Description:
Layout: E1 2-6, H1 19-31, E2 35-41, E3 59-63, H2 68-81, E4 84-88, H3 95-104, E5 111-116, H4 119-128, E6 143-146, H5 150-159, E7 165-167, E8 190-193, H6 201-214, E9 220-223, E10 237-241, H7 248-253, E11 257-260, H8 264-269, H9 275-282, E12 287-290, E13 306-308, H10 311-320, H11 323-340, H12 343-355
Amino acid sequence: MKIAxxxxxxxxxxxxxxxxxxxxxxxxxxxxxHQIVFYEPDAWDRQRHRDLAETPYAQTxxxxxxxxxxxxxxxxxxxxxxxxxxxxxxxxxxxALLEQAVLELRRPDSIVAxxxxxxxxxxxxxxxxxxxxxxxxxxxxxxxxxxxxxxAVVQNYQQLGAQRCFPIYNALDPSTHHPVPADPSYDGAxxxxxxxxxxxxxxxxxxxxxxxxxxxxxxxxxxxxxxxDAVPAYANVAYLGHxxxxxxxxxxxxxxxxxxxxxxxxxxxxxxxxxxxxxxxxAAGCLITDAWDGIEDFLEPGRECLVANDGDExxxxxxxxxxxxxxxxxxxALRRILGEHTYAHRAAELESLLQSL
Length: 357
C-alpha cells in the first residue's frame, strides 16, 4: 500500500511529542512492505532542531508555509499517488485547509483517514464550539484513528458521525529505545522529560517540582523546553533543556526512577498511554506515573511500574524505593512491553483494520 501522511514532523522532535509515535508506527509499516511519503511543514523552528537528517522507511517532503496554493498542490500530488491518505491532527500550519483538502482531492478508490494524535484536546475543542469547521468533516472520513483514548474517545467520535474510529496506541520501537549503560549526567533519584504546555504545567509542578522541594537531598533531572524560569527556585533540580532523541535511552536508563506526567485532558480521558511510558519501559527504567484510567492494560502497578496520585505519593515512592527494587520493576516492564506493546504489534493491528475496509 502507498501511504501519504501529513503530520507535524517526522524529522524533528523539537516541540513535537508525536515524533517518536510517527517514527515507530511508520517504520513498522515499512517493515511490512508499505511505501510511505511524509509531508511536514517548515514551521516552529523544527527543521533547525532535527533529530534525523532523513529516514530509511519514509520519503520526507518538507514544504514552505507561505503559500496556500503550494500546499494544495502537495495534497493533489499525495492524493493522486496514494492508496491511504492521512491527515494527522496538530500539523500546526494550515490544519483546517488540509483537513478539507484531503477529502475534496481524494481518489475514489483510496482510503482517507484522520489520525488524531491528541484526541482529548480535539474533542474538547469541538465540544466547546458547535461551529468548529472540523465537526462537519468527521463523517466524511473513511476512518478516524486515534493516539489512544479507549472506548470514551471512540464513542465520542461515533456520536459526532465518524464512520469508523479505532485507537492505535503508542508502543515501543526496540531498535531505537532500549537499555544502555548509565550516563553520570543523568544520575539522580528522579528524572522527567516533557515540554512546558498549559495543559501539563500544573501537574508537573505537583508531581515533579513539589517532590523536589520536599526531598532536597535528592537530585532531580528535568528535560524539555520552556522550564527556564521555573527551575532556579529548586537547587536540587538539574535542568537540561531540550533532550534530543539520541539521548533518551541514557536519560531513561540512568536515574533510579523516571516520572511520567500526563497532560490534564489525557489523564481525565484515560486510556492514552504516552510515548514516555514505552520509552522508559524499553530502556528498563523504573517508571513512576501519575494515575490514569487504563494503566493496568499496559503495565501492572506495583510490579511493572509505580503509580502516584499526587506529589506526596511520588515522594513516598522515592523514599521507600531501593535501586534493586527499581531495577526489578524496570526489567519486568521491559519484558511486558516487548511481549505485547511494540510498534510491530500496532502495525499488524492497523494493517488488519485497513484490509477489513
